[in-house]
Write a structure and sequence with these properties.
Elements: H1 14-17, H2 24-28, H3 37-44, E1 72-77, E2 80-93, E3 96-101, E4 110-113, E5 119-120, H4 124-128, E6 132-133, H5 145-152, E7 179-184, E8 187-200, E9 203-208
Parallel strand pairs: 2-6
Antiparallel strand pairs: 1-2, 1-5, 2-3, 3-4, 7-8, 8-9
Length: 218
């Protein structure tokens, strides 16, 4: 249903991988070769993981990606998972979206699937009582979606595009404030004291007690 280009990752020395910064200049000089799963599996004498091994959410997309460049939405900051920010769609490839933090450099852009649980329609934070981080230059208590769309001459992404809003979820058993033990994803050898900082549908936000939110994760 969707055309996605797969590139074989080149083998590189670990030392060269450190502090590596990609740029449009270097990327343009990389010679791409046509990708073939059949050829790759044959070369590696390997077997592809069967479809039955994947859950429904991990399987092939069942809906078309209706997001368009310029659409506005709200979403989780991947570097600060406790924060919801104003985002713009700046690129669409297949079922993937590149999202941009309005008012900030593009080096902070990030990619998500169109059905990601990390993105929400404009106005979702206000409706659910969550704090929304406005674009740079806007005060938090003065930001208004209607005025912002008018100022930007663009529109918010329609609610029907957010497939995560339409699926059935079980009632969450965790509540904000509950204590638990959790693995530190940045240091997986550590299991630390943590709290439930937020609950959305069937997911909850892990916060490590007495640490900043850069270590939080869903």
């Amino acid at each position: 249903m969707f055309d996605i280009i797969l590139l074989e990752r080149p083998k590189e020395d670990e030392a060269k991988m450190k502090n590596k910064v990609s740029s449009s200049h270097t990327a343009g000089n990389v010679k791409k070769r046509p990708w073939s799963w059949d050829q790759y599996l044959d070369e590696e004498k390997a077997v592809a993981a069967p479809l039955r091994a994947f859950s429904e959410l991990q399987s092939f997309p069942q809906n078309r990606n209706g997001f368009k460049v310029g659409m506005l939405l709200e979403g989780i900051d991947p570097l600060h998972p406790s924060k919801f920010c104003v985002l713009s769609v700046v690129e669409v490839i297949g079922y993937r979206l590149r999202l941009h933090f309005d008012g900030y450099p593009e080096c902070y852009d990030f990619w998500v699937n169109a059905d990601s649980s990390d993105i929400r329609p404009a106005g979702w934070c206000e409706m659910t009582g969550r704090k929304l981080q406005p674009p740079k230059g806007y005060k938090e208590d003065e930001f208004n979606w209607a005025k912002y769309q008018e100022a930007c001459s663009t529109q918010a992404a329609p609610k029907n595009l957010f497939k995560n809003q339409n699926r059935t979820v079980t009632s969450p058993k965790f509540e904000v404030g509950m204590k638990l033990e959790a693995v530190d994803r940045k240091n997986p050898c550590l299991v630390c004291v943590a709290s439930v900082a937020d609950v959305i549908d069937d997911r909850f936000l892990v916060h490590f007690d007495n640490w900043d939110d850069t270590y939080d994760y869903w």
